[in-house]
Design goal:
84 residues, alpha+beta, three-stranded antiparallel sheet, 3 strands
């Protein structure tokens, strides 16, 4: 079975960025918008998804999310979002 996984970044109303992973972006974003996705997006209302990246396994998605949450990953992400 070849399941697709995604890393995503949500811009919140206060300007913060929430980073996560999922195998269904639409469902997960709906959960964040309804306040059931994560504590951060319950407290900081989601505005839109500003970045997504498709990966071939859960392990790769978790690893990539961890990178995006690191100092160098946050800096890299800022550059990617500026270019959009």
């Amino acid at each position: 079975m070849n399941e697709q996984w995604f890393v995503y970044v949500i811009l919140c109303e206060d300007g913060s960025l929430y980073k996560g992973h999922t195998n269904n972006i639409e469902r997960r974003y709906s959960q964040h918008c309804s306040g059931t996705g994560a504590l951060h997006t319950k407290r900081h209302k989601p505005v839109k998804i500003v970045y997504t990246e498709q990966l071939s396994s859960l392990e790769e998605a978790v690893k990539r999310e961890k990178y995006l949450k690191s100092g160098i990953g946050r800096e890299w992400l800022k550059q990617q979002i500026k270019e959009l």
